[in-house]
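Course exercise 7: structure representation. Students receive a sequence record and must write out the corresponding structure in token form. The form below is the worked example handed out in class, using MADF domain-containing protein (182 residues). Read each field label carefully; the graders check that inputs and outputs are placed in the correct fields and that the protein name is recorded exactly as given.

STUDENT ID: A-19
EXERCISE PROTEIN: MADF domain-containing protein
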Amino acid sequence: MRSVYKANTHVPYVRCAVESGTEVGSVRDEEKMNTKFKDPEFLTQFIQKYREMRNLWEVKHPQYYIKQVRKSTLERLLAFVQTFIPEATMEILEKKIGILRNMYRREHNKIQISLRSGASADDVYRPRLWYFKKLRFLDDQTEARESLSTLPSTPAEADEDQPGTSILEEPDVTIWSQVNYF
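STUDENT ANSWER:
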């Protein structure tokens, strides 16, 4: 007789112990929080607050790299979030910001790829995120930095900068004929 194990796909809750051992979280609480966070009214206000706090997203902002200032700004943003979602924590807030930025970056990249492919105006990718336009302030923050090439741009520059033989020249065959094998 053969036994077949079927996983229970419906789990009402999963308990997870926190370091102190006294707090117990549940999947249902997390799902409720995600649902609240996805609410269009809340998310619109959240994006607006995030946009006002330039030192959290603007790389050239003078306070972008100062950890204490960033932390205090994040705490203010967390206080705003906790008015709607009381169980929100700093870790959840940072994760949600990362998710929003990542989703925006993905949609932005899809648009850029479709533009580079030579697609007609009708075939250019249209973002599916309803809040995509609200995150447009991140455009210049998501652009890839210009790379610096160490290779010469023309063969003439290669001759000037790199003394010695070119890759295109014939190799000296006599060197290979002098190899002794055991």
